[in-house]
Write a structure and sequence with these properties.
GO molecular function: fructose-2,6-bisphosphate 2-phosphatase activity
Shape: globular
Strand content: 5-15%
Order of helices and strands: HEHEHHHEHHEE
Keywords: Hydrolase
Oligomer: single chain
InterPro entries: His_Pase_superF_clade-1, His_PPase_superfam, Phosphoglycerate_Mutase
Binding site for substrate: 38, 66-69
Radius of gyration: 19 Å
Number of helices: 7
Protein name: TIGAR bisphosphatase
Length: 243
């Protein structure tokens, strides 16, 4: 939950380092993290292993915090399940006293996602305003952003999405958050924004909580800067081959 702001364990640091090595060749343009300590440490560990972005500023945002669990904060998961059972509800949708509802978590996720989309649009507008700026479409994206999915995922590389030509990304954003929060965010993108999912993804995989340092990759296209209708493709979900 939010109320327990403990540091990573020794295992957590090893997992964060493993994620950093896995993503070491990805050139990020922005990094955002929950302002809870365990997420801050994970983001720092990932950047610390990166070939290109060791000095990139990490921006901390309270909208990326884990779901608030009220009276269940800091207690074992078994206690939360028992509370839900006593209330006659399923655990994922149960809201303990003083906790956040799923709708409230989803609203935080929606607000942050729209903020990211606005950021990308502003970056593109700035790029277009430069008189000597090259076009955003080119064949050089492979030199700029190297994604490690080829051997770990059945889905296509970002450069093959759409019309098959490589496109230089306006932004390549690393977001470090928490399991229950990310499950709600992904649910929002699937149900509200019609995100395209990998063909081999099962319903149970879609609804499961990511393992610690699980990596998910989404390509978001904003045609003509249209913030209301983002085109979202999920390349991989909760990737854990680095663990």
């Amino acid at each position: 939950g939010q109320g327990v702001d403990e540091p990573l364990s020794a295992t957590g640091f090893r997992q964060a380092d493993a994620a950093g090595l896995f993503l070491s060749n990805v050139k990020f343009t922005h990094v955002f993290s929950s302002d809870l300590l365990r997420a801050k440490q994970t983001a720092a560990a990932i950047l610390g292993k990166n070939r290109f972005c060791k000095d990139l500023e990490i921006k901390y945002d309270a909208r990326l915090r884990e779901r608030k669990y009220g009276v269940a904060e800091g207690r074992p998961l078994a206690d939360l399940k028992a509370m839900a059972k006593d209330a006659g509800e399923q655990c994922p949708s149960f809201t303990p006293s003083g906790g956040e509802t799923l709708d409230e978590v989803r609203e935080r996720a929606r607000d942050f996602f729209e903020f990211l989309c606005q950021l990308a649009v502003e970056l593109e507008q700035k790029e277009q305003g430069k008189p000597s700026a090259p076009g955003r479409s080119s064949g050089t994206s492979g030199e700029q952003f190297v994604f490690p999915w080829t051997n770990h995922c059945s889905e296509a590389e970002p450069s093959s999405a759409g019309n098959g030509s490589s496109t230089v990304l306006d932004a390549n954003i690393l977001v470090v958050s928490h399991g229950a929060y990310m499950r709600n965010w992904i649910g929002y993108m699937v149900s509200d924004l019609n995100c395209t999912l990998p063909a081999n993804l099962t319903k149970s995989q879609l609804s499961s909580v990511s393992p610690n340092t699980g990596v998910s990759h989404f390509i978001i296209k904003l045609e003509n800067g249209n913030l209301l209708k983002p085109n979202i493709t999920c390349v991989c979900l909760n990737q854990d081959s680095h663990l």
